[in-house]
């Protein structure tokens, strides 16, 4: 039995889809452990796959959802905070207690290659601690060090406003620059499935999944200019100056300015060559060349490309009254809402594909609530924002409500009335 986590997220969903569609492992040998079991789509449920509740914050649920399994596919917790390592330990401890023998863990491709074990990138620290903890656990392991997702390029290339007027010359300010081996998230998930299915071939190994080319931040901005015809002035400044510029520019909300240090440390890491290598493993597992940035240009350079809410949440760019604000999580994420919000705010509004705020830690949710109260509530009260309601159902029609939700055809919020 193989337990899969993160199946509602980007990597885990792609891995699950590949496992199921290519029948790499019999469904009877797979189990999903999910924080929010209701988010598992009907099509997945209908395969008959076992689903158990497993919340990284509640170790007892983890033991229960991993019990009887031989292998755990552990997707790292989606946050940049320190709690991540604690939650990973919860999972590793629970796996051990439940009798799991092998863990496949999603890490990041810093450190200059598979042999490296140190990084200056803040985001890598919890991963490296987790890798160490896993290696010391007594269980066997496979560590998958993933390249940075290509759809997130803009977060590392100066937070450009992708839907700025075509004639605006944009400013991109980077703190250091260096080579990165960007990869497509769906392809990373697909390759992950092949490792999961053949885990015995990867015992106690660390694999790097990299894309097919090495590009600096400046290179990617050049490609953005080439594909969109837009103009960008790029400056690579010393870290302190670049951070100060982004604080002044409002690239992130003032209270999240500390995130910029984290962001800058990623740039410092690539400037030191921590990601300046290509590895053939992804291509071998896919059986084809992984997508280049040019292959993905239409998706990743357009103003309306649907950034995953969770990526925005992780990068602290949500609901802060900044140029990169999204209210979609609360108000719905259809084109209708996105268009209305854009018209109202004259700001980029990203479509949210997979809202998951419920799974964030309490501190984050509290902060978000406070930001909502100060930023969004007044606009809801004076009706400059309207929540678009698709349909109201009585509680007895919960099945129909779910069917409408899962059909993907609704434009607004679906309300259940509990009298
Ligand atoms: N390589 C990169 O460039 C890169 C970039 C960004 C992030 N990452 C990290 O790589 C990992 C995988 O990426 P991804 O894109 O698949 O992330 P993702 O889309 O955010 O998925 C994360 C998964 O974790 C689940 N989860 C959240 N809270 C949980 C909890 N308390 N207990 C159990 N499960 C929980 C989520 O469930 P719900 O759907 O119910 O919330 C979701 O299935 C994440 O750690 C992410 O932060 C990598």
Write the layout of secondary structure elements.
Blueprint: E1 2-4, H1 10-21, E2 30-34, H2 42-45, E3 50-53, H3 59-66, E4 71-74, H4 83-97, E5 102-108, H5 122-135, E6 140-146, H6 153-156, E7 169-175, H7 185-197, E8 205-209, H8 217-228, E9 231-237, H9 239-249, H10 258-271, H11 281-286, H12 297-300, H13 309-314, H14 328-331, H15 335-345, H16 362-375, H17 377-381, E10 389-394, H18 398-407, E11 413-417
Parallel strand pairs: 1-2, 1-4, 2-3, 4-5, 5-6, 6-8, 7-9, 10-11
Residues 5-6, 8-12, 35-36, 39, 54-57, 75-78, 106, 108, 146, 148-149, 152, 185, 308, 310-311, 314, 356, 359 line the site of NADP nicotinamide-adenine-dinucleotide phosphate.
Structure write-up:
The protein is an alpha/beta fold. It is built from 18 helices and eleven strands. The protein has helices spanning 10-21, 42-45, 59-66, 83-97, 122-135, 153-156, 185-197, 217-228, 239-249, 258-271, 281-286, 297-300, 309-314, 328-331, 335-345, 362-375, 377-381, 398-407, and strands at residues 2-4, 30-34, 50-53, 71-74, 102-108, 140-146, 169-175, 205-209, 231-237, 389-394, 413-417. It has a seven-stranded parallel sheet, with helices on both faces. Helix 1 links the parallel strand 1 and strand 2 (30-34). Helix 1 (10-21) packs across helix 7 and helix 9 (239-249) packs across helix 10 (258-271). It is globular. NADP nicotinamide-adenine-dinucleotide phosphate (NAP) is lined by residues 5-6, 8-12, 35-36, 39, 54-57, 75-78, 106, 108, 146, 148-149, 152, 185, 308, 310-311, 314, 356, 359. This is NmrA-like domain-containing protein. Residues 2-243 form the NmrA-like domain. It holds the Pfam family NmrA. InterPro entries: NAD(P)-bd_dom_sf (IPR036291), NmrA-like (IPR008030), NmrA-type_oxidoreductase (IPR052718).
């Amino acid at each position: 039995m193989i337990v899969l986590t993160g199946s509602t997220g980007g990597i885990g969903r792609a891995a699950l889809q590949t496992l199921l569609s290519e029948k790499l492992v019999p469904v009877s040998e797979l189990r999903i452990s999910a924080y929010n079991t209701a988010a598992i789509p009907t099509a997945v449920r209908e395969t008959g796959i076992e689903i158990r509740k497993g919340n990284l914050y509640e170790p007892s649920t983890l033991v229960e959802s991993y019990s009887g399994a031989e292998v755990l596919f552990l997707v790292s917790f989606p946050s940049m905070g320190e709690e991540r390592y604690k939650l990973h330990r919860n999972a590793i401890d629970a796996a051990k207690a439940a009798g799991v023998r092998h863990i496949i863990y999603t890490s990041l491709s810093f450190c200059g290659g598979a042999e490296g074990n140190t990084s200056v990138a803040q985001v890598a620290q919890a991963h490296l601690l987790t890798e160490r903890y896993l290696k010391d656990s007594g269980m066997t392991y496979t560590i998958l060090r993933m390249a940075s997702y290509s759809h997130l390029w803009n977060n590392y290339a100066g937070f450009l406003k992708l839907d700025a007027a075509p004639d605006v010359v944009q400013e991109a300010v980077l703190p250091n620059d260096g080579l990165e081996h960007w990869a497509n998230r769906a392809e990373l998930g697909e390759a992950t499935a092949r490792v999961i299915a053949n885990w015995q071939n990867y015992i106690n190994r660390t694999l790097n999944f990299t894309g097919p080319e090495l590009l600096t931040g400046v290179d990617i901005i050049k490609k953005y200019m080439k594909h969109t015809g837009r103009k960008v002035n790029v400056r690579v400044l010393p870290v302190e100056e670049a951070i100060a510029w982004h604080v002044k520019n409002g690239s992130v909300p003032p209270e999240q300015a500390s995130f910029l240090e984290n962001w800058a440390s990623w740039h410092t890491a690539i400037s030191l060559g921590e990601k300046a290598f290509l590895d053939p493993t992804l291509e071998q597992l896919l059986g084809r060349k992984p997508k280049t940035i040019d292959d993905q240009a239409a998706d990743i350079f357009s103003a309306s490309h649907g950034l995953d809410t969770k990526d925005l949440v992780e990068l602290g760019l949500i609901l802060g009254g900044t140029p990169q604000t999204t209210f979609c999580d609360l108000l719905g994420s259809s084109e209708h809402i996105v268009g209305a919000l854009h018209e109202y705010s004259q700001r980029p509004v990203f479509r949210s594909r997979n809202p998951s705020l419920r799974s964030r830690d309490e501190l984050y949710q509290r902060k978000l609530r406070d930001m909502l109260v100060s930023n969004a509530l007044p606009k809801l009260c004076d009706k400059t924002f309207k929540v678009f309601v698709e349909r109201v159902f009585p509680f007895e029609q919960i099945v129909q409500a779910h069917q409408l939700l899962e059909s993907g055809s609704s434009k607004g919020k679906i309300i259940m009335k509990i009298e």
